[in-house]
């Protein structure tokens, strides 16, 4: 298991390329899903310095806060509500350049300006979402979506 990350400078692509093998080493051999989510979120927050990086997991027909790094967060989100609930309902990654322009955005932090939410899919079903918020407008793009 890796215990330190090498923080890489350069393009977003180079940062992801350097981080991926480190994350794989970090979770290799660890069977606990929650522990792995916690370390994945921490690694991404450390590398990119985003405001908030975390997971919401589907429990009893709502998203429930899971492992995260950053300021306190909304604890439960209903299906179809906000960016996370919409990504869950549609089963697609959502990139929101300006959260103020997203209908029904849930403002857990007034510092958040842009967001990406990636559904976690297991055996064809969305089991959670990976949510990242930035203090910068338009901070996420196809590189983030595909990495």
Looking across the biggest beta sheet, what order are the strands in?
3-2-1-6-5-4
User: In DSSP terms, counting alpha (H) and pi (I) runs of 4 or more, how many helices?
Assistant: 4
What letter string, H or E per element, gives the SSE order?
HHEEEHEEEH
Shape: globular
Note poorly predicted spans. none
Secondary-structure class: alpha+beta
**Cα-to-Cα separation, first versus last residue:** 22 Å
- What is the CATH topology descriptor of the domain at 50-146? Beta-Lactamase
Percent in helix: 25-40%
Q: Report the mean per-residue pLDDT as an integer.
A: 95
| Annotation, overall tally of beta strands | 6
- CATH class group of the domain at 50-146: Alpha Beta
Our estimate of the beta-strand percent is 25-35%
């Amino acid at each position: 298991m890796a215990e330190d990350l090498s923080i890489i400078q350069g393009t977003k692509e180079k940062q992801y390329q350097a981080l991926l093998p480190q994350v794989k080493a970090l979770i290799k051999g660890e069977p606990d899903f929650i522990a792995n989510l916690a370390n994945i979120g921490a690694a991404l927050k450390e590398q990119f310095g985003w405001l908030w990086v975390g997971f919401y997991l589907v429990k009893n027909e709502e998203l429930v806060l899971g492992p995260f790094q950053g300021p306190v967060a909304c604890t439960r989100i209903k299906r179809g509500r906000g960016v996370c609930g919409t990504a869950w309902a549609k089963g697609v990654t959502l990139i929101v350049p300006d959260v103020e322009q997203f209908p029904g955005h849930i403002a857990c932090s007034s510092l958040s300006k842009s967001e990406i939410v990636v559904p976690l899919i297991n055996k064809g079903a969305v089991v959670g979402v990976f949510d990242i918020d930035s203090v910068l407008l338009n901070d996420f793009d196809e590189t983030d979506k595909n990495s």
